[in-house]
Design brief:
Shape of chain A: globular
Number of strands of chain A: 10
Structural class of chain B: alpha+beta
Oligomer: heterodimer
Number of strands of chain B: 23
Distance between the termini of chain B: 35 Å
Strand order of the largest sheet of chain A: 6-7-8-3-9-10
CATH class of chain A: Alpha Beta
CATH architecture of chain A: 3-Layer(aba) Sandwich
Largest sheet of chain A: 6 strands, mixed
Order of helices and strands of chain A: EEEHEEHEHHHEHEHEE
Strand content of chain A: 25-35%
Largest sheet of chain B: 13 strands, mixed
């Protein structure tokens, strides 16, 4: 599904090159639940950005299914991003001005989904995540855990093939964090491919594979037996 | 999708209601001002267009050449119109207009009532063939086709006769002529150059209608031409007719045609305009349009500034939406929607403002604007256009700028605080203050020039001089009786009968250089009686005043000339005494008896020309009795004067003017302009400060933490205020540097319109700059003081 080959990403200063990612090669199959770990500044978020097609590598190749992503025009890349990816953020990043319902609806609007279908899909998700009663509340009226639930709901509403999560539990209490991780596990069991970044060793164990980054290199790539 | 944009936009505007409020107020004021100015400009641009044949009507103008002077007069000899109609095939119709006694009031007796009509004209019966003028009563074919007929406007008819029929009633003018009312016409609309309150038939004035000449240029004449007539052909044809009638070497003018629709705005260069007082000026229309645009731009700058300043918050939103699948275009549309809503709210508010302010604006600008009906199709279109313009002008850059944000920064661990395009925003602030400072400088220079005019020695004294209209006299004894009665009043120090006085036009004649008869220049001739120099406080340089009494049968003329006229002859004042002024009054026996110092008989726009007072019996009427008072008890004195007047003029109304009011009228348009500019300046400063206020609110908000840290480290309130104000004040300083040469250039060219003008002092720029700086500082200091005085523990706990 994802094939990265010798990916490099660096910043240039006057005389100096600072590597964020160096010689990263990686293959991820559909249905995997990958956790990226590593200390601050190791390049985790940059890797996630590149996989999520929000950022481009300076060199190396990226194959997503059959598409040579690094060769694509921006428009096509945006389309891939739009139809295949869902994003979950550490700081939830819900839109403050929209209610829970409207937040979840937004990705469907950008994909021109008809109103009737939007309603039924959102109803399903609200039901499934147990947040039907909260649908008319605004983000600031929710607890952090509830906000992240909405964030996950919003990420999967358009049926993405790949769920990308940047420290999804970073701002949460452990009990709330576990709820989110249980949800991820459930989604994974249903066949969703997930890539998450986390610092938490415990939450890494929810996945099937751990990739450890250090100074832009892949230090370790191991599978977890479940 | 659009619904979603709306929802987000409205909620976001509400959430940031402080900034939205500032934006809406600024935009609403800017829009209201430009709407009012648009009404004005639109009214001026569509002036006279209501006439069906407007495009085929021309006014004949003569280009007069004498000496090194070339002038255009919109009044032509009475032979021109009829001759052109007869001999030029393109000319379908002609109509001549003569204003009663060249613009003097007419005294009217009708139906037992006495009243004054200011706008009486004598017009050809062909008037209806050329202009759109609807008769409510009477028949256009016969209404003016013979002597002693008059038609009156609907409002005049209502005033005089109420509901009773006006047709067939007899009307007496100046106690001299009696006419029959043969029609009532619909009042001319306010956007019409024609301003006749009453129109008498041309044939009623014998000297005008029977003695046809190519000499006396007193008749405003309009030609109706065939639709495809070229103006060049018309000009050629008219001058060919002149060549047929007048020998080449005796011609002192040539003809040209002015399109009727150009008259209102493009006549200010004519030395003598038409009779109508409803004259516009294209340069004023241009200045107003420019000002309207400037105010609108200022308001848009505010919006752009605040929208990009808050980009930090907006970028997050853009990033999120883009990861959710939004495209650049969709984000642009989302932000434009927000601007559009804001612009719509502002527009609605501004319409309200316009409705409230229109009467004030009208009195300020001294004109009647078309009423503004926002529901009319035309105004809806205008409003829609304005809305679109504002939305694009204010919204496009921020929308483009914000939408460009790349979502990857949302995830980057090192997110630099990014405040948008700082340089761009600073440029806009500088732009705003350039406009403000230039306008402040403008106010000063305007005011200085007006003061200069008011204080400059006019060369005569207008104070405590009263002009009383005596045109209603039927016998000389009435005037002589009145004069004697006034002489006996202790409050009266001098009096004189005159044809006109400074500020009014008198008769135009020409004089020639001694021995060089082809060198000609114009001279203003004013028939007056003795003591005119005492009434006007003129200084006699040589000789004496006009002699006291003179038999009506005496054909010799004594004159007193001004310095300029004598200088033209090449004489000193002393040399001139006893000589005959070459060329004046053609071949009459004329003698110079005195020379007076130059005085400003016209506005300061014009240099002083040649002027002559004469006592010729047949040269001009003397409708005015000028009275110089020696008291400040004006009210009781005027009552005394009126009482005496009524004894000798039982049949007429007591009409008087203060000379000082008349001289002030010469600068009415400048004074009005100064007022309009002052108001504009106030509004632009207000709008700019509004923007600055919002901008500082934002920056201080962003720097709260920095301020807290500095305070903990021991910074003083003053020090922090300085820190926060410095950046903005620097911008204002730059603005002052740019505004100074710009304002200098513009104002200098404005001052060049005056023959007598001030030079622009350096202190004007210093003071204007200081005002701009202080205003900016006060605006900024409220916010910075608040931030500087805040308890640092609050700001540091924010994260």
């Amino acid at each position: 599904m994802i094939k990265l080959n010798n990916i490099e990403r660096f910043y240039k200063n006057a005389a100096q090159k600072t590597w964020v990612l160096k010689d990263v090669s990686l293959e991820i199959e559909p249905g995997e639940f990958v956790t990226i770990m590593g200390p601050s500044g190791a390049g985790k978020s940059t890797l996630l950005n590149i996989i999520g097609m929000l950022d481009q590598p300076d060199s190396g190749t990226y194959q997503f299914f059959d598409e040579e992503v690094h060769r694509l025009r921006e428009r096509k890349r945006n389309d891939l991003h739009k139809y295949y990816m869902g994003f979950v953020f550490q700081a939830y990043y819900l839109i403050d001005e929209l209610t829970v319902y409207e937040n979840i609806e937004t990705p469907l609007l950008y994909r021109n989904v008809k109103k009737a279908e939007r309603q039924s899909r959102i109803a399903d998700v609200l039901d499934r995540f147990n947040i039907v009663a909260k649908k008319d509340l605004f983000p600031h009226q929710l607890s952090g855990g509830q906000q992240q639930l909405v964030g996950v709901a919003r990420a999967i509403i358009a049926n993405p093939k790949l769920l990308l999560a940047d420290e999804p539990t970073g701002n949460l209490h452990s009990s709330q964090g576990e709820i989110i991780m249980d949800l991820f596990k459930e989604l994974h069991n249903e066949g969703m491919t997930i890539i998450q970044v986390t610092h938490n060793e415990k939450y890494a164990n929810y996945g099937t594979r751990v990739i450890e980054l250090e100074d832009g290199f892949i230090k370790e790539d191991r599978r977890i037996n479940t | 999708m659009l619904k979603n944009y709306f929802k987000i936009a409205i909620r976001s505007l509400w959430k940031h209601r402080f900034y939205s409020g500032l934006n809406i107020i600024g935009l609403a004021i800017g829009l209201a001002v430009s709407l009012i100015l648009f009404l004005y400009v639109n009214g001026e641009m569509t002036f006279d267009q209501y006439h069906q044949q407007a495009a085929n009507i021309y006014r004949i103008v003569v280009n007069v050449k004498y000496d090194d002077v070339k002038e255009d007069w919109a009044r032509v000899p009475n032979n021109a119109g009829p001759t052109f109609k007869e001999n030029i095939k393109e000319v379908v119709e002609q109509v001549r207009l003569l204003r009663h006694n060249f613009g003097r009031d007419a005294f009217i007796n009708v139906d037992g009532k006495k009243l004054v009509e200011e706008d009486l004209y004598w017009v050809d019966s062909t008037f209806f063939n050329v202009f759109d003028c609807k008769l409510i009563q009477g028949d256009p074919a016969t209404a003016l086709n013979g002597p002693n007929k008059i038609i009156i406007s609907e409002s005049a008819a209502e005033k005089i006769f109420g509901r009773s029929l006006a047709l067939g009633k007899r009307i007496k003018i100046d106690n001299q002529m009696e006419l029959e009312i043969t029609g009532v016409y619909e009042d001319f609309p306010s956007n019409s150059t024609l301003d006749c309150g009453m129109m008498g038939s041309f044939q009623s004035i014998k000297w005008a209608s029977e003695r046809l000449t190519w000499g006396n240029a007193s008749f405003e004449t309009f030609l109706l031409t065939q639709a495809d007539t070229k103006i060049e052909d018309l000009n050629l044809a008219m001058n060919a007719e002149l060549d047929k009638a007048v020998k080449k070497e005796e011609q002192w003018y040539s003809f040209w045609a002015q399109p009727f629709l150009d008259i209102h705005l493009y006549s200010s260069d004519l030395a003598t305009g038409g009779y109508s007082v409803r004259a516009g000026d294209i340069s004023q229309v241009r200045i107003m349009s420019l000002l309207a645009l400037a105010v609108l731009l200022l308001a848009c700058f505010n919006y752009i500034n605040m929208a990009t300043a808050r980009s930090q918050q907006r970028f997050r939103e853009v990033g999120i939406n883009k990861t959710l699948g939004a495209s650049n275009g969709q984000m642009v549309r989302r932000f434009l929607t927000e601007t559009g809503i804001l612009a719509a709210v502002s527009l609605a508010m501004s319409i309200l403002l316009v409705q409230i302010c229109l009467p004030y604006a009208e009195s300020l600008m001294g004109l009647s604007l078309n009423t503004f009906d926002p529901l009319q199709a035309k105004s809806l279109l205008t409003l829609g256009g304005l809305w679109f313009l504002i939305t694009v002008l204010a919204g496009f850059y921020p929308a483009l700028f914000l939408s460009n944000f790349s979502p990857k920064k949302l995830l980057s661990p090192l997110r630099k605080p990014y405040s948008g395009n700082r340089f761009f925003r600073q440029t806009l602030v500088v732009g705003q203050f350039v406009i403000c400072t230039a306008l402040i400088i403008g106010i000063f220079v305007f005011q200085n020039q007006l003061n200069f005019i008011n204080n400059k020695k006019l060369g005569f004294k207008a104070e405590q001089v009263l002009s009383i209209n005596t045109s209603a006299a039927t016998e000389l004894s009435q005037i002589e009786g009145l004069k004697n009665a006034y002489r006996n009043l202790p409050e009266v120090s001098a009096l004189s009968r005159m044809q006109g006085y400074p500020g009014l036009s008198v008769s135009g004649y020409t004089i020639t250089k001694p021995g060089q008869e082809h060198i000609v220049r114009g001279i203003q001739s004013n028939r007056a009686s003795a003591d005119f120099e005492k009434v006007l406080s003129l200084k006699i340089l040589a000789g004496k005043s006009l002699p006291e009494k003179k038999l009506e049968t005496d054909t010799t003329i004594q004159v007193v000339m001004n310095e300029t006229a004598v200088k033209f002859f090449g004489w000193t004042p002393e040399e001139a005494i006893g000589k005959t002024p070459p060329g004046l009054y053609h071949y009459s026996a004329t003698e110079i008896v005195g020379v007076v110092e130059d005085f400003h008989f016209e506005s300061f726009h014009n240099p002083i020309g040649a002027y002559v007072f004469n006592n010729g019996a047949s040269i001009g009427r003397r409708p005015y009795l000028l009275v110089k008072l020696n008291t400040r008890e004006l009210k009781t004195t005027i009552q005394k004067l009126e009482a005496e007047f009524n004894k000798y003029f039982p049949a007429s109304a007591f009409e008087f003017d203060f000379l000082s009011d008349q001289t002030r009228k010469m600068y009415a348009s400048e004074e009005r302009m100064a007022q309009v500019i002052s108001l504009f300046t106030f509004l632009t400063i207000f709008i700019s400060c509004l923007g600055l206020f919002g901008l500082t609110a934002f920056t201080t908000e962003r720097r709260t933490k920095e301020i807290g840290i500095r305070k903990v480290l021991g910074a003083s309130v003053i020090g922090i205020m300085g820190l926060l104000s410095k950046d903005f004040l620097k911008l204002v300083l730059i603005a002052i540097l740019i505004a100074t040469p710009l304002a200098y250039y513009l104002l200098d060219s404005w001052l060049n319109n005056f023959a007598y003008r001030i030079s622009i002092d350096w202190w004007v720029f210093v003071v204007a700059g200081a005002i701009a700086l202080v205003l900016a500082f006060l605006t900024v200091s409220y916010q910075s003081m608040k931030a500087a005085m805040a308890n640092p523990s609050n700001s540091l706990n924010n994260d």
